[in-house]
Amino acid sequence: LRDGEIAISEANVVAVIHDVGNRFTRGCLDPKVLRLLHLYPYKHSVLVLNKVDMVKKKRYLLELSDRLTCKRLTSPEKSHREDRTKLSEEEVMKEVKKQSGWSNFCQVFMVSALEGSGVGEVMEYFLQYARPGQWMFPETVYTDQKPERVICEAVKSRLLENLPNEIPYNCDTQIEMFNELRDETIMAVVLITCPSMRIEKLIMRKIRTIAQESEAELRNTFMTQVVLKLVLQTVEK
Fold first, then answer.
1. What is the pTM for the complete model shown?
2. 121 phi and psi, to 5 degrees?
3. CATH class name, domain 1-129
């Protein structure tokens, strides 16, 4: 959550990507997202409704847009004003409990990342409001994080994609071995610690898929060959 606060404080434009394919959660913004928006109400923000291809009744998308924007959009010029009174953490949480949407969005986009529809409009919008600035890192640097952390985060993301409900959040990942060979191939072993044998068995069914998807993501990140092994262990709480 702290990483989110740092990112939004430094961003020129904040995009809230909302999954409309999930009928259980699409009716309101995530409380953690609403909290960040309330902490930085002057930030230029937009709402991106993703997976619109999964909604059969397109009229519902308009109704959902009204609900998530509180039937109001703000101009980018007004959103940049920082003279609004900042709320305390307690005041923010009270506001979050009362609301399901955010009234300071500047624009709403409806996209299908799977089909590619609407993505171009989002990119054009970002380019329109991008501000010139110096590169924070040389062009040869792809991340400021250590390789070991990048690997663990990649495995965590694949756990989230492949496992249901709270299971990924109850597991811990850590590097057991990291080695970079002379041909620049990266070899790594990641230990996944599970809170129970039941969860370990559930992950075991998907472990080959998780490993393969993690490897593919890491090859794109590091731009080199990656050999990844996942090891499971259970530590009963």
1. 0.62
2. -65, -40
3. alpha beta
